[in-house]
Write a structure and sequence with these properties.
By secondary structure, the protein is mainly beta. It contains two helices and eleven strands, in the order βββββββαββββα.
Length: 181
């Protein structure tokens, strides 16, 4: 178990303690402050409640993952409980895809845009264990017009890649799609 991390009521997510709000960057003369990403929308498009299955803190039956921005990437540390079982002792593939999709979706906050998943591929490298410390990281690969290409990986506590994904996201106009700005 990672020291300093608290487990949620559902034993399905991991959260950072106040003492871990600063990230020390070795070989760099400064420290970066972690910024937490709430929901999928930029600050210019606020929502009152977030019921997203993966990251929605208002969804009591969801995963309630908490992502932190670290430079130009997003990271979430978590543990998966038995309710996410696929093969005995391991996570269901659909849950793995959900976590990867949500991690890639967080990257839209870096550009202050709203984008939807257009295409996504998942490579299941090794079985993702339940009840073990895990982390998901996402990075932007490219931007071309309204097309954003992102990648994400789920890693074990030792840093081994368990699953990886690449996704294409299309930037949308929230006023046109949702009827408000």
């Amino acid at each position: 178990m990672l020291s300093g991390f608290g487990t949620s009521v559902f034993d399905d997510t991991r959260t950072l303690c106040d003492s871990e709000m600063q990230l020390v960057r070795y070989n760099a003369p400064f420290m970066l402050k972690k910024t937490f990403a709430r929901g999928h929308t930029p600050r210019s498009f606020p929502i009152k409640k977030n019921f997203c299955f993966a990251c929605g803190q208002d969804n009591l039956k969801g995963m309630r993952l908490k992502f932190a921005q670290e430079g130009n990437r997003f990271v979430c540390r978590f543990k998966l409980g038995k309710r996410y079982t696929g093969p005995p002792g391991y996570c269901h593939g659909g849950i793995i895809a959900t976590i990867l999709d949500d991690a890639m979706g967080k990257l839209c906050k870096l550009r202050q845009v709203i984008a939807v998943t257009s295409k996504m591929t998942v490579e299941y490298v090794k079985p993702v264990p339940l009840h073990k410390p895990l982390r998901v990281e996402s990075h932007e690969l490219s931007k071309r017009g309204r097309r954003l290409t992102h990648k994400a990986e789920i890693l074990s506590e030792e840093g081994r890649v368990l699953a990886r994904s690449k996704g294409v996201f299309i930037i949308i106009d929230p006023e046109r799609i949702f009827g408000r700005k």
